[in-house]
Design a protein that fits this description.
257 residues, mainly alpha
């Protein structure tokens, strides 16, 4: 049990800016096995985002409350996944072959594809969450946030399990390099249990279209990354998480219509 806690806290430290107990320490082994708890980290982030949204809506309009909740999730993760999405937009938008795509994604500068992509993504996410509140009401919005953050991180974990790491083995500077280890079916099972557990809090008639949208997004992302790069990078994982989260909210809206 202590080892599993170490793996979870290693994931929490890697994917967020939240403090972890000092006894956890640091080791390569912890990071190599941390991906199994990526969706559980999503639950933590989702709880924080939902809490800020629900508290803010007590005194503010729903649009502002949703914006504050989104800002809280970005703050707690350091914009880790949004940064990956932005880099992926620049890389795939400006690169014509694998080497060029990887070089652009590694560049710290932000290009026009990244700016346009982030504006569209965050705007769509904000609109979807506001519409979810109008369609289902406040309790469902909080649960949708929780489930969306967990399920979308499961989508990224699935890529780690099924795809190869696309960067050269000698490239130790990549931010996802510590996670680029083969996952066992048991580890994927832990990730799936954590990623799908919050969905049990939602009506199946509403959550099934959402999960279907996440599955389709994951499949399309995997096919695209395999075709363009032969595998995934950390930026690909971040992009998949962001797109799958949006897909989850849109799927729930489809069930309402």
């Amino acid at each position: 049990m202590k080892r599993q806690l170490e793996y979870f806290f290693a994931a929490l430290r890697f994917f967020t800016r939240l403090p972890v107990p000092a006894w956890v320490g640091h080791s390569a082994e912890q990071l190599h096995h941390a991906a199994r708890y990526f969706p559980l980290v999503g639950i933590v982030v989702g709880i924080l985002g939902a809490a800020v949204t629900e508290l803010a809506v007590l005194v503010l309009p729903i649009g502002i409350a949703v914006l504050l909740g989104m800002a809280a999730t970005v703050l707690v993760t350091g914009g880790f996944h949004e940064d990956g999405f932005a880099d992926a937009c620049d890389g795939f938008g400006g690169g014509w072959d694998k080497a060029r795509v990887l070089a652009i994604m590694k560049d710290s500068r932000v290009g026009s594809y990244a700016v346009i992509g982030l504006v569209l993504l965050l705007s769509a996410k904000w609109l979807a969450l506001v519409e979810l509140d109008g369609a289902f009401g406040p309790p469902f919005l909080a649960l949708a946030l929780l489930a969306g953050h967990a399920a979308s991180r499961l989508a990224a974990t699935v890529l780690i399990f099924f795809l190869e790491y696309a960067r050269d083995d000698s490239d130790d500077s990549a931010k996802s390099r510590p996670l680029a280890q083969a996952m066992s079916p048991g580890e994927l099972g832990i990730a799936a249990a954590c990623g799908l557990a919050p969905c049990l809090l939602l009506p199946w008639a509403d959550v099934l279209p959402a999960l279907g949208a996440v599955a389709l997004t994951t499949l399309l992302a995997a096919r695209y990354f395999r075709r363009r790069l032969g595998g995934y990078t950390g930026d690909c994982l971040g992009a998949t998480q962001q797109l799958a989260e949006l897909a989850f909210y849109l799927g729930m809206l489809c069930s309402f219509s």
